[in-house]
Amino acid sequence: MAHLPFADPGAHATLLPEDPAAAVLDADPVDVAAAHPSSSLAWAVLAEQALGRGDREGAITAYAFARTGYHRGLDALRRNGWRGSGAVPWEHEPNRGFLRAVWALARAARAIGEENEYERCVQLLVDSSATAYTELVGG
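Above: the chain sequence. Below: its structure as tokens.
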């Protein structure tokens, strides 16, 4: 997969508001997602845990959790001025839930053989935040 250049760090950045789920991440992740269903972070944590199982059922479960977190994140980004492209900086901590959900979705997609979705998600991560790509992918 050829990666396009990272997003221009000087471009208009979208900054999400604080995520109340971040304050209670030490609780049971299922309880956190149930209490904060609009939180990308809550769904990303569930997806990461499911991926950690290392089996096919975990990958399918992770895919569903990550896709939920991804879509909840898109909703939040749009409410905060994002128009389908542009920087979503990792450095702004409330953005991390969405970015983690994107990476979890990429990993889960690859685990179930959906390579096109993997590549699309990796490109979204690259386009959103060079730092997120480096932190999450190790790029």
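Residues 29-138 form one domain.
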